[in-house]
């Protein structure tokens, strides 16, 4: 993928120098959150960053793909008062959901043909926050296999400030899907725009 256009999941080019971006590296390239170590790491990281920089603490956001999506889900569960919103992209319940009873603005993104972390897990994670956020339950449409398209559904009835959206796409376990063709494209992916829209509504 084109690294310049895909920096920070394609969000840096949309931010126009308005945002502090931080990329984390998990122990052994993973985020198992053993004994809560990864959540503690994030807590310490935030403390260090906010000790050094001027941060709008009402607008902290978390986004991640795959294992990073799983970690973002953990933060959605455990740090609802720390993060304003999350975007869980092709994640899974790899590290549990400590807490997990409070609402948080939530965007789920998942490929219908994901063979690594199946879409059923993405739906389950989404539905937890559909319930937590008081949204009206529904079975959102997803694109047909072979269509090379995506659908985005915004749930109705969610509690104030806690929207839930679901973006399903016809592809596998990839970070930068594009409509019309297969594979990743940092410059043509629609995901960054959806994540940016989700976050900047606040």
TrEMBL record:
InterPro entries: AB_hydrolase_fold, FaeB/C/D. Keywords: Carbohydrate metabolism, Hydrolase, Polysaccharide degradation, Secreted, Signal, Xylan degradation. One of its GO terms (cellular component) is extracellular region. GO terms for molecular function: feruloyl esterase activity. GO terms for biological process: xylan catabolic process. It is found in: Secreted. Involved in degradation of plant cell walls. Hydrolyzes the feruloyl-arabinose ester bond in arabinoxylans, and the feruloyl-galactose ester bond in pectin. Active against paranitrophenyl-acetate, methyl ferulate and wheat arabinoxylan. Belongs to the faeC family. This is Feruloyl esterase. It comes from Streptomyces rapamycinicus (strain ATCC 29253 / DSM 41530 / NRRL 5491 / AYB-994). The lineage of its organism: Bacteria, Bacillati, Actinomycetota, Actinomycetes, Kitasatosporales.
């Amino acid at each position: 993928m084109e690294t310049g256009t895909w920096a920070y999941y394609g969000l840096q080019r949309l931010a126009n120098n308005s945002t502090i971006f931080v990329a984390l590296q998990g122990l052994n390239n993973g985020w198992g959150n053993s004994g809560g170590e990864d959540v503690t790491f994030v807590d310490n990281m935030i403390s260090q960053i906010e000790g050094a920089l001027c941060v709008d603490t009402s607008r902290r956001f978390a986004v991640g793909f795959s294992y990073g999506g799983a970690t973002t889900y953990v933060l959605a569960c455990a740090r609802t008062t720390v993060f304003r919103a999350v975007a869980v992209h092709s994640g899974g319940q790899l590290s549990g959901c400590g807490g997990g009873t409070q609402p948080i603005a939530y965007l789920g993104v998942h490929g219908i043909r994901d063979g690594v972390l199946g879409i059923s897990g993405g739906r389950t994670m989404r539905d937890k926050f559909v319930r937590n956020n008081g949204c009206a339950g529904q079975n959102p449409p997803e694109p047909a296999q072979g269509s090379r398209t995506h659908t985005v559904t915004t749930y109705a009835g969610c509690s104030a400030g806690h929207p839930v959206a679901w973006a399903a796409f016809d592809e596998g376990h990839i970070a930068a899907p594009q409509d019309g063709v297969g594979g990743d494209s940092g410059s043509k992916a629609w995901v960054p725009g959806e994540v940016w829209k989700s976050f900047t509504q606040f």
